Amino acid sequence: RLEEFLKKEVDLKLSTLPDFEERVIDVSEVEQLMNSINTIPAPCAPVINPQAPNAATGTSLRVCWGLFSDDTVECYQLCYKPVSNERHGDDQAEHTVKVKETYCTITNLLPNTQYEFWVSALNASGMSPPSEKAVYVTAPSPPTIMSKKIRSCENAALVCWESRDINPVDSYMVEL
User: Fold this and answer.
1) pLDDT tens digit string along 118-158?
2) What does pTM read for this prediction?
3) Fibronectin type-III domain spans which residues (predicted)?
4) I need a labelling partner for 49 at 20 to 30 A (CA). Which of 22, 104, 137, 142 fits?
5) DSSP H helical segments within the chain, as ranges?
C-alpha cells in the first residue's frame, strides 16, 4: 500500500489563499508571573531586644535585634528619637541609621536620657513593617565633687557632689 501511495502524484496547492491576521500576543501576565517566581518576599518585622546590662555609657547605647524567620535581608534601618513629654525642635528629631548587622552602637547622645528605638529590615522586594518600639536609657554623667565642702575627722567624712544631669538620678554609689 505504501508503495502505491508514494507513486501517486499529490497536489499540494490550496484551493483558497490563507488569510493571516497580524496578531499581537500579550505576554505581560506571563512575564509578571515569571518575575514573581524568581523574587524573594519582603522580610518580616524584626524583634528589637530590651536594653542589656552595661550596654550604655553617658553618650552612647548599643541596640540589638533579631529575626524570627529565615528572611533574606540586605540591611536594616534603625530609627530612634529621645523620649520626652515636651517638644524641643531638633532635640525631638527622629534619626535613621542604615546598618548591615543586627546591632548598632549609637553615639553622641545625651546623658541620663531615654531614647525610643525601632528597626525595619530591607531587601530587594521592599521594607518590612517596623519592630515594636523599645526604650533605652543612657547612663548618667558622673557627678562633680564639690571639693570646698569636703569635711573629715577621725571616724567620718562628709563628701558633697552635684549632678550635671537634667533628668533626676535614682541613686549614687560612693566607693571608699
Assistant:
1) 999 999 888 999 999 999 999 888 888 888 888 888 888 88
2) 0.66
3) 46-142
4) 142
5) 2-7, 28-38
Instruction: Quote helix, strand, coil % in the chain, to nearest 5.
Output: 15, 30, 60
Mapped onto helix, strand or coil, the DSSP state of residue 33 is: helix
Beta strand 161-162 pairing with 47-48 = unpaired
Which residue in the block uniquely carries the three cell numbers 546598618? 99
Question: Domains plus CATH for the chain?
Answer: 47-137 (2.60.40.10)
What single letter denotes the amino acid at residue 170?
D
- Give exposure, 19-36, as e/b (b: 16+ Cβ within 10 Å): eeeeeeeeeeeeeeeeee
Give the residue from 52, 160, 46, 163 showing the smallest Cα distance to 112. 163
